[in-house]
Amino acid sequence: MRSTEAKPSGVLARAGDWLQRQWWQASPTAGVRLLQPLSALYETLAERRRRATAPEGTGLPVVVVGNLIVGGAGKTPTVIALVHALRKGGWTPGVISRGHGRDGAAVAAVRRDSAAREVGDEPLLIHLRSGAPVVVGRDRLAAARTLRAAHPEVNLLLADDGLQHWRLARNAQVIVFDDRGAGNGLPLPAGPLRQRLPEAVPPRSLVLYNAAAPSTPLPGWCAQRRLAGAVELAGWWAGEPPSLQALHALRGRAVVAAAGIGAPQRFFDMLQAQGLSLTPCPVPDHHDYATLPWPPGTPDVVLTEKDAIKLDAARCPGSRVWVVALDFALPDGFVAELARLLPASPSVPHEP
Q1: pTM of the full predicted structure?
Q2: E strands within 67-187?
Q3: Cα 200 from Cα 214, distance rounded (Å)
Q4: 3-state DSSP call for residue 256?
Q5: 3-state secondary structure at position 161
Q6: pLDDT tens digits along 260-293
Q7: What domains lie within the chain, and their CATH numbers?
Q8: Over the stretch 139-164, which tens digit does the pLDDT of each residue have?
Q9: Distances in Å between the alpha carbon of 184 and those of 201, 262, 350?
């Protein structure tokens, strides 16, 4: 299986690749142990900042979704699934997010015609897939105020990637892990942890594993995930649903699979489990697709929805580009436990 890979070149890129490989070892290597004094400094400064920050309320119940590790572990599909689950429970949720990778940090509302570079690829995908109002901004409290002013019907806020945003008071938090778990168990920069893995699940917190089985000692629930199917890029933008028939029709073809997500190999493995023969084309997380990473004239390309959000079908002449969607379901027990951490639902359950 060949790999068509688009990554920055140079000494820094090679050092970054080496460090990430060390992070995801089961235990710390000799090389990263040399960085542990810096990890101790990072922890000290982070804890000092946390203690000095007084949480502020938004006037609404808040559920924070985030990672203890750097990078992606499944926050975006979790937020989308939570929007639908909370609606069924009688809530009208809105979403606030920093909008990682966007140009600028000011507060901005996400619209259907927003560009990913202006609002962030994940917030735009959340808005398109869930229909919930989404506002981005480095200051999550300011984003919350803007969202409430524009959407007075919203009665609960989901904070995407807000676990370490200590100013934001929260009723509950969802800590998401993928199959990599906590890696080597060390904080940055010697390991991938933004916060050290706790010995027990923190108060008012739930752990969700975007994996077939728990990947840390913390008790939690495993999301039910599978590929929902494929749809051509132009059809995806027009709102056409994916189908397994279209995905299975790609069996036996020479397919390039592109993925600019936190763990691209997971996407490639799921495609291969569906019987596709593919050439993997991993690109950096939040890749902007300013240039196409696959060879010109590639007949069939498959990619994730997070990648599709930055591509127009007109930019891909000579290639059939297929968007492969994820079917991500939350366990009933997880949803019920989250409901117990929230006030009573104020309205009759509904799903638009």
Answers
A1: 0.91
A2: 93-97, 108-109, 134-136, 156-160, 172-178
A3: 14
A4: strand
A5: coil
A6: 998 899 999 999 999 999 999 999 888 889 999 9
A7: 54-223+330-340 (3.40.50), 228-326 (no CATH)
A8: 999 999 999 999 999 999 999 988 99
A9: 19, 17, 43
